[in-house]
Structure formats: C-alpha cells, structure tokens
Amino acid sequence: MARPQESFGKKEKEKKRLKKREEKMKKKEERKSNPKSGDLEDMLVYVDENGQLTDTPPDPNKKKEKVDAESIVIGVPKKEYIEEDPFHKGKVEFFNDSKGFGFINDLDSQEKYFVHISELVDEVKEGDNVIFEIERGMKGMNAVRVKKG
C-alpha cells in the first residue's frame, strides 16, 4: 500500500496546530497555579463625577448638585403636528399619452414626481400648471389626484 503524501503545507499546518495546543495547555497550567482572588471588590467599577469608569470609589466632596427627579421626562416627547396643505402646485414637464405616464415638477421644492394616467382628474399636456397630492409608490413619491390649476 502506498503511503499518503505529506506536502509542505500539510506539515506546516500540523506544526501550527500542535504549537497552538501546547500554548493552550501552558495557559491552562498557569491559571491553575495562579488563581485570581475573585473578590467582589476586584470586580467593581465606579463612575466618577465626569461620567468616566474607574476602579476607585468617587469622592463625595466632588459630587455635583442633586438632580430634581420631577424634571426628568421618561418617554418620547409629543410631536407637534404642523398643519400642511396636502395640495402641491406644479407644472407638467413631460407627458406621453401613448404610454400613459409623465413627470410633474413641483414649483415649491423643484422635486420631480411621477404621474400615471390613471391618477389624472383632468386631461393634461406638457406645460400645463396643475394641482396635485403626493403619495408613496413602489419606487418613490408619485403625484396623485392631478387637476389642472
């Protein structure tokens, strides 16, 4: 029977594996010979007056003034609702009747919105001023309920 061939790479991998195992055993023996105290005092961490973590207890003389517990707000602050006009004014930049879609340029924000022929209330053509609302579509914001204006 033929002996399996040992390449240089295989030998090197085996050497690394044995070396790693040996180092692991040394660390294990070292831990057994020098056990740590395991006291709670060794594991405690304190926060100093600047908010930094330290192993020494904070000095009570350096403590800042007390915080009024009543002034702490827990939760999310209520969002103020701003009444916004849902209608936007724009100009039809491009419209293809045969394909049934186009683009409207918002006059306030200069954003371009896609519009489909099914969302038209009035018939429009390129250059018409229109009033429309926007809704989120599959690929972004779309102009809906488009009227001449």
TrEMBL record:
Biological source species: Gillisia mitskevichiae
CSD domain mapped to chain residues: 87-148
Q: Which UniProt keywords apply?
A: DNA-binding
PROSITE patterns in UniProt: CSD_2
UniProt region (Disordered), positions on chain: 1-68
> Would you name any one GO CC term?
cytosol
Q: Name one GO molecular function term.
A: DNA binding
Q: What is this protein called?
A: Putative cold-shock DNA-binding protein
| Annotated Basic and acidic residues bias | 20-33
User: What Pfam families does the entry give?
Assistant: CSD
